[in-house]
Structures are given as structure tokens and as C-alpha cells.
Q: What sequence folds into this?
């Protein structure tokens, strides 16, 4: 449901394992987590990463594709044909990175992860950023003492 003009929606805060997750349903943003119990499923081998424009391995759709961070299979997202969601459940591969915005999602925990600050995720984030944009990912500025850092991840409406 779209908000009418003039309406203002406050972020919703939910207490979850791993911290507070904030999300704004109408605006489509969430606060990404900085830890996950499934990071041990991430594998290395960045030299043979699929290109960011690779089609889904099952339906060949070129839109909204995700890279499995365990086996590096490319499948489409839940708003196309849901092949990455099915792959995650069938193969027990919970982590994937979206080619569109380089966001990392844990299917098991159902939350986004901050790939720029989690050491196990930073190499694949950096490799895909360079491949997609032709420049290295900028370093992330650490927040000053007492400052709150907000990571914005765009989600489909």
C-alpha cells in the first residue's frame, strides 16, 4: 500500500537476535546486521565469480539475480521466479549477494548483512563492486564516538 502524500511513517524497531533491526515499510529501507551465525557458509574462490549481469542458472532471466556465497550459483530473486530462495532451502546455502545493489541477504536469519564491515563478506563485495562499477569500493568511514551509523539497503516495493 502506498502512502498518500503528506503522510510520514516512523521506522519500525524490532528486537531480534543479533540486535535491533529497523525497517521502514513504506520507504523500503532496513538496517543491515554486522554479524550472522551463517558466515561459516561463505566460501572463497573469487577468481571465477560470475559477472554481475549473469542470467539465472535455471530460467535465464537477466533481472534481479543473486550470487550464492557458498557455491557461487547465480539464481533469480523471489520477485522474479524465486530460484535463489529455492536454492538456499534445497542446498542449505543461506547467504547470497544481489547483483543489483550488492546487498547481502541471509535466508536463514531473514535479514540483510553489512558486506562492507563483515570481514568474510568484504572480498566478494569488493570484487563485484570493481566488476560492476570499474572502480574499487570506497573505504567505509568509521562513525565517531557516540555517533550512530545507519546502513541503507534498498528493497523492492
A:
Amino acid at each position: 500500500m502506498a502512502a498518500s502524500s503528506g503522510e510520514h511513517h516512523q521506522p519500525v524497531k524490532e528486537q531480534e537476535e543479533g540486535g535491533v533491526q529497523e525497517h521502514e515499510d513504506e520507504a523500503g529501507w532496513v538496517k543491515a546486521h554486522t554479524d550472522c551465525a551463517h558466515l561459516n557458509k561463505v566460501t572463497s574462490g573469487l577468481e571465477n565469480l560470475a559477472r554481475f549481469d549473469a542470467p539465472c542458472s535455471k530460467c535465464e532471466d537477466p533481472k534481479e539475480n543473486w550470487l550464492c556465497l557458498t557455491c557461487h550459483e547465480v539464481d533469480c530473486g523471489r520477485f522474479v521466479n524465486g530460484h535463489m530462495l529455492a536454492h538456499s532451502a534445497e542446498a542449505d546455502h543461506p547467504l547470497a549477494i544481489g547483483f543489483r545493489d550488492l546487498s547481502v541477504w541471509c535466508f536463514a536469519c531473514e535479514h540483510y548483512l553489512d558486506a562492507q564491515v563483515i570481514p568474510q563478506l568484504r572480498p566478494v563485495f569488493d570484487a563485484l563492486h570493481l566488476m560492476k562499477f570499474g572502480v574499487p569500493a570506497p573505504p567505509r568511514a568509521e562513525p565517531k564516538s557516540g555517533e550512530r551509523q545507519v546502513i541503507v539497503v534498498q528493497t523492492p516495493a
